[in-house]
Amino acid sequence: MRIGKLAEATGATTATLRYYEDEGLLPPAERSPAGYRDYAADTIARVGFIRRGQAAGFSLAQIRQILDIRDSGHAPCTHVRDLLDIRLTDLDEQISALVALRETIARLRQGAESVDPESCSADDVCRYL
């Protein structure tokens, strides 16, 4: 299937598909006599997997590792589970950091209620911070 049809079938742009191929996420496409890329039908599922991996927050390098495991004839599910565990830990840390940041900003905003903006000295720039 030509790259335009693959793009249509997967919702990816042709530029994205070329990038995936350049980065080794997709096997090199066969070429027609006119030089057009000709992808196998199973490439649709592979692009779908790449996009699901990205939606889960995996890097393209991590997705490539998973695909390499599959391409070597092994099930990558244990590796994926481990990556999901790492991703969950990372998300928990990010959420904690965001909650702390929100508390800091809320405290600063509350303090801004009682300060007259005109009372800020040039050295302070702004007393709210």
UniProtKB/TrEMBL annotation:
SMART domains: HTH_MERR (SM00422)
Domain of life of the organism encoding this protein: Bacteria
Gene3D superfamilies: 1.10.1660.10
GO MF annotations, alphabetized: DNA binding; DNA-binding transcription factor activity
Keywords from the UniProt entry: DNA-binding, Transcription, Transcription regulation
Domain HTH merR-type stretches: 1-69
This protein's name: MerR family transcriptional regulator
Organism from which the protein derives: Mycolicibacterium aromaticivorans JS19b1 = JCM 16368
Taxonomic lineage of the native organism: Bacteria, Bacillati, Actinomycetota, Actinomycetes, Mycobacteriales
